[in-house]
Design a protein that fits this description.
Length: about 290
């Protein structure tokens, strides 16, 4: 199966990033969101990224023009489903919301299309149970910022067909990503390791082991991590990190996964990270500044 047309459901940071790289690959791409304001922001995010590329001399006006021709937006989910070879859902990490999206998509998308969720830790099997032909369902876990991060985590459940896995690997290759294949276990491979490291870093910060920037520098220079665990937590979203930790604690019946009280306090106060302007760090000036 050759991918030519792609529908992206959800125009947040992840959905817009996925739509961007799909359009850059040359696929006809429809970015959908039920909320017009979210759709507008998603499109603006993509266009702004492309414009910065032109200004930095990393791409040309001609290239951007060709990418724009491949990208369209819609507030009609049927338009984002009709005739699509691949549909990737990127709505918020609420399993009931994702289930409802796929119940609707199955009745709209072509029977042979691949249906994928971009969840970072929710059960693929549980979502797949909403789909009659669950063999065509798979997890495609992208990383933020999607255009720059080179990894794509492919998550298969027990019923995912080998054909779907093969297509997913080819999708990743076409998008310029390195793919890894994991089974549907809580937290997959990446989120499970990432949130545990981030939670321990928050514990160290709360205990006064070192400043946030020094903890991050330790991991960047001592372990060659491109970004420290606290800065990464702010980038991903502290609320997202907390939800994954709670899910792991419940799935494994292990309270050691529970989010540290400092993380809970930040989320409850609305300090969700970079997207909110403040989290572990203060981002209101446009750059990272010590806060805690």
């Amino acid at each position: 199966m050759e991918i030519r047309k792609v529908g992206i459901v959800g125009a947040g940071a992840m959905g817009s990033g996925i739509a961007q790289i799909c359009a850059q690959t040359g696929w006809e791409t429809v970015l959908y969101d039920a909320f017009s304001e979210s759709l507008k922001k998603g499109e603006e995010r993509i266009l702004s990224f492309w414009q910065r590329g032109i200004e930095k001399g990393m791409t040309s006006e001609v290239e951007v023009s060709s990418w724009k021709a491949k990208l369209s937006t819609s507030s009609d989910i049927e338009e984002a489903s009709r005739g699509m070879d691949l549909i990737i859902e990127a709505v918020p990490e609420k399993i009931e919301l994702k289930k409802s999206v796929f119940r609707e998509l199955e009745g709209l998308a072509p029977k042979e299309s691949v249906l994928a969720t971009n969840t970072s830790g929710l059960s693929i099997s549980e979502i797949a149970a909403e789909i009659e032909n669950s063999g065509r369902f798979v997890g495609l876990h992208f990383f933020n910022p999607v255009p720059l991060m080179p990894l794509l985590e492919i998550v298969r459940h027990d019923e995912t067909s080998e054909e779907t896995v093969t297509i997913s690997k080819k999708v990743g290759e076409s998008l310029g990503k390195t793919t890894i294949l994991v089974n549907d276990v809580p937290g997959f491979a990446t989120s499970r390791l990432g949130v545990v490291l981030g939670n321990e870093a928050i514990r160290m910060l709360a205990e006064g082991v070192a400043s946030a920037s020094d903890i991050d520098t330790a991991m960047k220079l001592g372990y060659r991590h491109p970004m420290g665990p606290l800065e990464l937590s702010d980038l991903v979203g502290l609320d997202v990190r907390m939800d994954i930790l709670n899910s792991l604690a419940e799935a494994f019946e292990d309270e050691s996964y529970r989010p540290h009280p400092l993380l809970k306090k930040l989320v409850e106060s609305g300090d969700l990270g970079k997207k909110a302007g403040r989290g572990i760090y203060d981002w209101t000036s446009g750059s990272r500044e010590e806060r805690i």
